[in-house]
Amino acid sequence: MPDRLPTAEQNIRRRVLLPLGTTLVIFLVLFLGVFQVYLQRELSRQLDDHLNSVERLYQDLLRERSIVMQSFVSQIQRDKALAQAMMRMDRQLLQEKSSPIFRELLRDQNITHFYFHTNEGVNFLRVHKPERYGDQIERLTMQQARSGIQVAAGAEMGPLGTFTLRVVVPWFNNERLIGFIELGEEIEPLLEKIAVQTDSQVAILIRKQILEREAWQEGRQMLGRSAGWDLLPEHVVTAVTEAHLVGRIDQYSSKPYLSGSQVVTAALHNQQYRGRYLSLIDASNTQVGVMLVLQNAHDTLNDHRFAIVLVTIFCILLGGGLYASAYTILGRTEHALENTRQKLLDEIDKTHEANTQLGLEIGEKRAAEQALKKAHDDLEKRVVERTSQLDQQKRLMENLISNIPSSVAWKNLDGVYIGCNIGYAKLAGSSEEAIAGKVDAELDWSAEFRLTLAAVDEEVLVEHRAVLGREVLDETSEKKRVFICNAVPLKKEDGQLLGMVSILQNITEQKDRQKLLEETLTESRQANDRINGVMQSVDDALIVVDAADNILLMNESAYTLLRLNPAEVLGKKVSSAIWLGSMRDKVVEVLRKKQGGVQFDFEIGDENNPSSLVMQARSSVLVDPQGRYEGMIFLARDVTRDRSMDRLKSDFISVAAHELRTPLATILGFSELLLDNNIGSDTDRKEYAQAIYEKADALSRLLDDMLDISRIESGRGLELFIEKVAVETLFTPILKQYQKRVVDRQFTIDLDDPELLVMADPEKIAQVLENLLSNAVKYSEPQSEIGIVGKTTTRGYMLSISDEGIGMTPEQVEHSFDKFYRGDNADKAVKGTGLGLTIVKHIIEEHQGTIQLESRPDKGTRVHFQLPIA
Cα dihedral angle (822, 824, 826, 828), rounded to 10 degrees? Predict the structure, then answer.
């Protein structure tokens, strides 16, 4: 054996190492192939993620610009001069008033289209092109705005082949629709933002079949752009972010590319780009063209090539190491074979011994089987004993049934008694043995009692229904008894009917107590009358409807609010009793669904003002004690003021967004100038920094106002640091500072008792003065007088601030301290959020002081507040 070991060792190495080497080579090739596929999929995934982010950014930009244009339309709608010109159909006056607005929108916001349309959708004026008017506007956004009398926005193709984002808003004057205002912005400038934010190159291609060649070429010439109509067979290029891309698009104009199923690869400025076409959808969800998005993949491709080379080197080194290790290990294996053979012989000996032991265990198993047989015999004995115990329990159960207080009997399918307990036998005036085998007609029952039992038997044995809680009267000349009958069918396990069990319970004594229950019912009726009184005293309108949709009850508020006659509506169907269509249709829908907890709004008005009141109704389901549907309750309350506040909040959000955007634009603009190293002198830097500081301070004040309102709304109140402070120390520095800052107003200051101490938070009082003085300046003319007078009163120290401005109407004075409220003064449009006076009022009241406002139109305004004296 030792002489043949080297030859055997060489044979093992040859037989093992040759397949091993082949396998390693195959694995290397497969691994590199799989790795290459993975890298390609990773590139595709990255491209898909990039395209998704571009598409989301494109949609976000459209939504953002739509919101911005809606806010500008809201400002335009508040211009009374424009509204008067539109209502008089004075095109020339409308052009004069709107042209400065359009120039400002074009310069600051890149808004290129400005329209006024009539209620019928006919263009009345194109501010950007006044010579064209009178045509019917058939665009989808216009149709949506007209059909729903609501704001409509979306990207659509223009008549000159321009892809434009449009916003159409209904124009109301005193709740009367006087027309529509439309703003539009070319989509192409948005591509630059997309390209910069995503490091991409973008091109837009529009389908020729939806364009007219002459009109499109005219539009391109008007915009100062080249018109390459014949560059592509089915599309025209309307916009690109890289000029060199135009000459290469024709290479990718086949259908696989245009459908987005094939990746576009291009080299621009020594950079590798990969991308695909995306569908370009307009507001009507129609594909008007495609958008080519190319991602800069230069660095990613280089990284992938380096990774493949690195993985290849690693696999070669790893395979070589495995091959060498296998060569060494196989040499040692042969030497171990002899030792293994010897061990195998030893194991055979041990197996023989184990077989001998197994024979012994088989003998033991047979002994165990005999023991098991003995245990089985013992089990049979215990079963017999258990059967005897069950018989005893059965007899015990029969004794229990015989002695329970209720009367129990059981019958077969023919209504013949099989047995009964003692109570049932006594009830029938017989014995248990005598009743067995008889029917009810043979027992001493009264005629009415016998008929009732026969009806119960028929329901149980014929109709297979359980009878529960049936009241049965047994009346003879000697006595009168009342029973509750419960009868249930008896069935086998397979459901086959065997008979029935009948249980009679004497409730005669309970009937004797019925008079007491009648007294209780009387009290219940009185309580019901009190409830009706409460319902009639409820201020909110309340309507009760039964299960058949008939009106059961309405309180006085409902009759008054809905202008109904009680005699005409009670007991009538809701669909015919309620004349108000906006309410009736919603109530009928809720009744059809039988759904509680539903809230809906409806409006009530008259011919002059059809929506003078906004009501909110809520439904509740009426059920009986068994949970069955009995009807519904509708409770309606006046939410006109709540809805008005909701509209004010929406206006506030729009105004606040504009108030935030304007200073942010200034800050960003001057910051870019400061970052430019080629800026001029230090004076310029200081001027830019001062502008940034002023706008940031304005933002800070706006955010402080919003935070204060948030604290007030949450119920936490404002955080005050009240201390004793002299009148002169509290007011004079702020008044002097404001007097220096505003040089075009005549300030007069007269403060009594300047050394008098008052209880105040200096910082919050400064905020109060800033708001009141700011309002006085905003709503007064230059060189007019603003007076500040302070004097001591019996209840504290009062400071008055008066101006000679435009003043307010009594209605505006009434709402001046409401959140988000801004008076509508067409002659002087002043920006603001409508929070200033609200915060001022809360600050003064937190100081345990009072504030009042007096004003008349064109006569100025006077605000005076009072602080407690220390």
Answer: -30
pLDDT of residue 183: 94
| Separation CA 583–CA 578 (nearest Å) | 8
Q: Give the integer Cα–Cα distance in Å for 46 and 436.
A: 90
Q: Which residues contact 572 (CB under 8 A, 6 or more apart)?
A: 550, 551
Cα–Cα distance for residue pair 20/330, rounded to 1 Å:
12
Neighbour order of strands in the sheet with 264-268 = 235-240, 200-207, 287-296, 271-281, 264-268
Per-residue pLDDT tens digits for 243-256 = 777 777 877 778 88
Compute the chain's Rg from CA coordinates.
Answer: 47
Q: How far is CA 543 from the centre of its chain?
A: 31
Q: 283 is written with which tokens?
A: 């507001």
Give the span between the Cα atoms of 445 and 479, in whole angstroms.
Answer: 12
- Give, as one character, the DSSP assignment of residue 122: B
Letter for the amino acid at 617? A
Answer yes or no: are the C-beta atoms of 141 and 156 closer than 8 Å.
Answer: yes
Q: What predicted TM-score, i.e. pTM, was given to this entire model?
A: 0.38
Q: In the structure encoding, which two tokens stand for residue 567, read together?
A: 């005699």
Residue 471 burial (10 A CB sphere; 0-12, 13-18, 19+): exposed
854 near 836, Cβ under 8 Å?
A: no
Q: How are beta strands 113-117 and 123-126 bridged, if at all?
A: antiparallel
Question: In the chain, what is the greatest distance between 2 CA atoms, to the nearest angstrom?
Answer: 129
What is the predicted pLDDT for the residue at 115?
94
Sequence-separated (6 or more) residues with CB below 8 Å from residue 156: 139, 140, 141, 163, 164, 166, 282, 283, 284
pLDDT at position 95 is 92
What six digits make up the tokens of 481?
């008894």
What does residue 151 show for φ and ψ, rounded to 5 degrees? -70, 135
Angle between helical axes of 836-846 and 682-714 (0-180°, round to 10):
60
Report residue 485: phi and psi, to 5°: -105, 130
Per-residue pLDDT tens over the stretch 1-16: 444 444 444 466 677 7
Let me know: does 401 contact 410? Beta carbons within 8 Å: no
Q: How many CB atoms lie within 10 A of CB 224?
A: 6
Asked if 631 and 545 touch (Cβ cutoff 8 Å), the reply is yes
Closest among 307, 303, 298 to 265, alpha carbons compared: 298
Nearest to 34 by CA among 252, 364, 308: 308
Strand extents, DSSP E, 262-332: 264-268, 271-281, 287-296
Report residue 386: phi and psi, to 5°: -65, -35
The values of phi and psi at residue 758, to 5°, are -125, 160
664, two tokens: 């942010």
Tokens standing for 657? 């967004």
Rounded Cα distance between 222 and 218, Å, is 6
3-state secondary structure 506-525: ECHHHHHCHHHHHHHHHHHH
pLDDT tens digits for range 404-455: 778 889 888 888 998 888 888 888 888 888 888 888 888 888 888 888 888 8
Q: What is the pLDDT of residues 77-123, one digit of tens each?
A: 888 889 898 998 999 999 999 999 999 998 888 898 999 999 999 99
How many residues are recorded in the chain?
Answer: 870
What is the DSSP secondary structure assignment for residue 523, as one 8-state letter?
H
Rounded alpha-carbon distances, angstroms, from residue 232 to 207, 222, 238, 258? 10, 22, 12, 12
Q: pLDDT for 686-715, tens place per residue?
A: 777 777 776 677 677 767 766 676 666 666
Residue carrying structure tokens 């009928």: 588
- 8 A C-beta contact, residue 204 and residue 191: yes
CB contact set of 542 (below 8 Å; sequence gap of 6+): 535, 553, 554, 555, 557, 558, 633, 634, 635, 636
DSSP code for 550: B
Give per-residue pLDDT as tens, 447-493: 888 888 888 888 888 888 888 888 888 777 567 788 888 999 988 87
pLDDT at 834 over 80: no
